[in-house]
Amino acid sequence: MKLPLPFRRDRSVLKRPDAQDQVEKLLADSLRTLGQVCAKVADLIEAQRLQRQGYSQQNNFLRRVDQPPGPEPKKE
Fold first, then answer.
1. Residue 27 — very low, low, confident or very high, per pLDDT cuts 50/70/90?
2. Cβ-contact 34, 40 below 8 angstroms
């Protein structure tokens, strides 16, 4: 009975000609997905930081309170 060597350099995984291409494609897709996950986590952390500073919701605009509301200026 022939036992396999523990540190044998068997390249059986890359015997197919397109195996390296598939591995590289998988690695690139994985890195893209990891980048998307990191962007989502960064957005979540930024939203929590802003919420702690008092900005609870986005898409709210500030209104000036130092001027009394008057008639809208006419466009010429």
1. very high
2. no
Q: Which amino acid is at 53?
A: Q
Residue 23 maps to a domain: yes
Token pair, residue 42, equals 């960064």
Instruction: State the residue for tokens 């690139």.
Output: 28
For residues 36 and 71, the model is more confident at 36
* Alpha-carbon gap, residue 14 to 6, rounded angstroms: 19
Q: pTM for this one?
A: 0.50
User: What residues make up the domain containing 24?
Assistant: 19-52
CB 20 within 8 A of CB 28: no
Indicate the number of domains in the chain: 1
